[in-house]
Amino acid sequence: MVEKKAFQDYYSEQMSYCYGCGRLNEVGMKIKSYWNEDENTSIARFTPKSYYIAFPGYVYGGLMASLIDCHGTGTAAAAVYKSEGRKMGTKPELRYVTASIQVDYLRPTPIDQELELIGKVKEIKGKKVIVEVNLYAKGQLCVKGEVLAVKIPENMISIS
Amino acid sequence: MVEKKAFQDYYSEQMSYCYGCGRLNEVGMKIKSYWNEDENTSIARFTPKSYYIAFPGYVYGGLMASLIDCHGTGTAAAAVYKSEGRKMGTKPELRYVTASIQVDYLRPTPIDQELELIGKVKEIKGKKVIVEVNLYAKGQLCVKGEVLAVKIPENMISIS
């Protein structure tokens, strides 16, 4: 069963103003990520506003990079909590930022519908997590992304 | 001297609804790209709205990927017009979409100021153009991007 509380709902207040996924960013996209039933992959669903187009009928690439980015860092944090046998949201807070992102646009992505992002952790190594994120529209793979996420130093979480 | 008319101002109406750079997208970011004085590099300047943050004080990575994307495809089109000895905006229209993008976030990018993007064409090969885009804040290199842009088939420009 998909959890009702999203990964991002566990972020501390200070870490919840991200335009992409922060629950406290009033105008942001509030992306929500969850484990899939298998707990091996993560899922986020998002329906873009009609003006988020590259050209009429198709989703803007920058938006999809943004979705992949936030779903990737959220999945990284959740995966490390899990790998350490810890509950989401427990202290010290685990939060990740994107060190690099690679996005391959395989085909134009139709707009005016829900997009589905599936995340899969490829590697956890020290402070780095590599997450692969595939984006689907109408069940068709449209975009492939890979996020190299890096743990935010604890002092940056509290002072930034 | 920097041209007054941006690359994106030459796009046909049909190609001008992009959320990132379309002059006709009413809520979009309307990124504007120009050749630098040397005509060897391109430049775009953009001041993010205050809510485009990853966390307080710092620009959201997805926004910067978007800026790099549109500045990259705009630079690709302008570079091919130039390499073919054609004036911008002449028919058949040359327009490029992003096939893939790689973005490396070198350091947190401070918000509440103008960002500067510098594009440089690395390669033009058939329908593909590779553009390197560096993003600076306060003169400091914060983000490095690379865009693989691909020419849009002419029939897609007119029918899409």
Summarize the structure.
The structure is a homodimer of 160-residue chains. The first copy, chain A, is an alpha+beta fold. Chain A is built from two helices and eight strands; from the N terminus they run ββββαββββα.
Which key features would you list for this structure?
8 strands, 18% helix, homodimer, Thiol Ester Dehydrase, Chain A, two-stranded antiparallel sheet, 160 residues, alpha+beta, 35% strand
Shape of chain A: globular
Radius of gyration of chain A (Å): 15 Å
CATH superfamily of chain A: Hotdog Thioesterase
- The domain tally of chain A reads 1
Helix content of chain A: 10-25%
The CATH topology assignment of chain A is Thiol Ester Dehydrase, Chain A
From the N-terminal CA to the C-terminal CA of chain A, the straight-line distance is: 36 Å
Quaternary state of the chains = homodimer
Note the total helix count of chain A: 2
CATH class of chain A: Alpha Beta
Our estimate of the beta-strand percent of chain A is 35-45%
Task: Estimate the mean pLDDT confidence of chain A.
Answer: 93
| Strand-pairing-aware structural class of chain A | alpha+beta
Q: Uncertain regions of chain A: pLDDT < 50 for 5+ in a row?
A: none
Largest beta-sheet details of chain A: 6 strands, antiparallel
Order of helices and strands of chain A: EEEEHEEEEH
Q: Total number of β-strand segments of chain A?
A: 8
Biggest interchain interface, per-side counts: A-B, 37 and 37 residues
CATH architecture of chain A: Roll
